[in-house]
Write a structure and sequence with these properties.
The protein is an alpha+beta fold and 265 residues long. The protein has 7 helices and 9 strands. The protein has one domain: 3-Layer(aba) Sandwich (NADH Oxidase), CATH 3.40.109.10. Helix 2 crosses helix 6 and helix 5 packs across helix 6. The protein binds flavin mononucleotide. Flavin mononucleotide binds next to strand 8.
Length: 265
Amino acid sequence: MAYDAAHCPARFFHLNSSNARAKAVDLAVDYDTRPRRFKSLPSVTRVALPKGNFNIQQTLGEALRSRTSTRDFKLRSLPLARLSQLLYLSHGIRGLKTVEGEVAFDRCAPSAGGLYPIELYVATQQVQGVPDGVYHYDARYHRLEEVVRGNRHAELAELTIGQDMIRTANAVVVMCAVFQRTMWKYGSRGYRYTLLDAGHIGQNLYLSAGAMGLGAVTIGGFFDAEVNRLLKLSSDEDALYLACIGQHDRPHARKAKRRPSTLHK
Ligand SMILES: Cc1cc2nc3c(=O)[nH]c(=O)nc-3n(C[C@H](O)[C@H](O)[C@H](O)COP(=O)(O)O)c2cc1C
C-alpha cells in the first residue's frame, strides 16, 4: 500500500492529527463532557492484593541490560505478591499530585495531561490465592475485580493468532484504552497520546518483570473485537497491547528464543 493520505488510512490519520502553525491548536475543554478518570466494576467478586512497594534488588542498569522478550515459560504457581508488585510498578497509583491545577493520580508511567486513559486487565493462571480467570485491575484500591471466572489462556493463545507461549504464562496483562479520557481534551492527537501511554506501561511491565526474575513478552497481534468481548469491555474501551508474563529457568537471560517478526500480525 502506498504511504500517502489518499491510499493509506494510517497516513491520513497521522496528517490530520498533526499540529501545524497554520492551524490553531484548540485548547478549549468542556468540563461538562469529561469522562470519568477511573473504572470500577460494580457488584463483582474482588481479590485484595498485597500492598505494592519499590523494594527491588536489581539496579536500573541491570534491568535495562537484561531486558529481553521471553517466550519459553515454565508453568508453575506464582505467588500473588509477585503479580501484585508487577501491577503496582507498571500502573499502580503511588499517590496524588497536581497537574495543571487539578488533582491527578501519581503513577510510575507518564501520561499526557495526567489523564491516564489505560486500564489494565489480567488473565491469570496458577496465581496463588486467585481463581484462574480474567480480572480488571482496580488501581485506585489496588485490587482485582473478577470479569470472567475460569482459565482463558488457551482462548487467548487462539485470539492472538496462535501465540502459544500464552499457554504456559501465569498472567496475560491486557492494556486497554478509554480513548475519550484523553481525546476529550486533545482531540484526534489524543489518540496518538493514548498509544504512547500504553508503550510506557509496556516498558514498565518488561522492566519490573525482569527485575523480579520473571519473563515477559508483549503482543501487538490479536483479533481486536474478540479480545474486547472476552474482557467484556464497554463500547468506549478497546484492547491495545498485551503483555505475557511467566516464569523461566534462565534468571536474567540476555537472549530469548525469537519468533520470526512476520508472526506479529
Ligand atoms: C508493539 C510491539 C508488538 C509486539 N508484538 C509481538 C507479538 O505479537 N508477538 C511476539 O512474540 N512478540 C511481539 N513483540 C516483541 C518483539 O518481537 C521484540 O520486542 C523484538 O523482537 C525485540 O526483541 P527483544 O524484546 O528480546 O529485545 C512486540 C513488541 C512490540 C514493541
